[in-house]
Amino acid sequence: MGDPRRQSDNVPLRLAGARHALGIEGLALEGVYPSQEGDNEALWAAVEPTLLRFPKRIFLWRQSAPQTNEVLRAAVILPALALIEERFGRPLDLFELGASGGLNLYADQFHRQFPGAAIGNPDATVRLHPDGSGPLPPTRLQTVVSRRAVDLNPLDPTDPTDQLRLLAYLWPDQPDRMSHTRAAIGIAKVDPPKIDCGDARDWLAEVLEAPAKTGRGVYQTVAWQYFTSETRAKVREATEKTGSCATDEAPFAHLSMEAEGGVGAAVKLEMWPGGASRQIAHGDFHGRWVNWTGV
């Protein structure tokens, strides 16, 4: 049956994702998904026959861990890319760790609104406007030369089954997350991302061994907590080694958005040559608010 605890198999969450997938496909739960009205009795009256009607589909969803690709986290990636551009003024090869479907590899093609300023493509289909405070970051972006990522279980945003998985764990009362993810999937379908199946532990060192022809940027968002201690050590080793060889013509940056206790995630950026790490923001794990602490 699986371990229902949140820190283990989280069976209830898997069941919720399976039910929502059926709702997205229009196979069940009409009238209660999506809805913020009604009562528990009406909801259960729709859910119970769904469980009995689609046991095989639901069982298959129970076999895999929940997985999302939070597009709103690009609200911190975009300004960070602008900071890197301001510092080095060089095109970038982008590398993402724990990328899921790789949707945030296209952050430079999104639009991020600030009070009185904006970053990114003014005609973008993904438009981010989180709450927040702090000084305005720079707004100019660099050219992204290439995009590559790694994940233990990469999802293909061009595959209908994987698209459904990316959407099913975004709940029906969260239309903004759904619309942003659908729009990002549309971008990825035009230019499919290269996502390798593997552990960031060895992958990062391998891809960074290639001679740098321009700038390079590595980032991860709310992935560090899922890495083993060995993987964390190897990622640090690879970033420090690459940073020590960086030049103004071939700079290197590492961006992280990770939990550090308390509310929300710390957003840190380290750039080489130099290597000084600084916290540039503090934000909600889903990107709903971002407070800039200094640029």
Short account of what is shown:
This protein is α/β, with parallel strands linked by helices and 295 residues long. 34% of the residues lie in helices and 22% in strands.
Topology:
Elements: H1 11-24, H2 40-53, H3 55-62, H4 74-88, E1 92-97, E2 111-114, E3 117-120, E4 127-128, E5 131-133, E6 144-151, H5 160-168, H6 175-190, E7 194-197, H7 200-208, E8 215-221, H8 229-244, E9 252-259, E10 265-272, E11 277-283, E12 289-292
Parallel strand pairs: 1-6, 1-8, 2-4, 5-12, 6-7, 8-9
Antiparallel strand pairs: 2-3, 9-10, 10-11, 11-12
Descriptive account of the structure:
With 295 residues, the protein is an alpha/beta fold. The chain has helices spanning 11-24, 40-53, 55-62, 74-88, 160-168, 175-190, 200-208, 229-244, and strands spanning 92-97, 111-114, 117-120, 127-128, 131-133, 144-151, 194-197, 215-221, 252-259, 265-272, 277-283, 289-292. A nine-stranded mixed beta sheet has the order 5-12-11-10-9-8-1-6-7, with helices on both faces. A hairpin with a 5-residue loop joins β9 (252-259) and β10 (265-272).
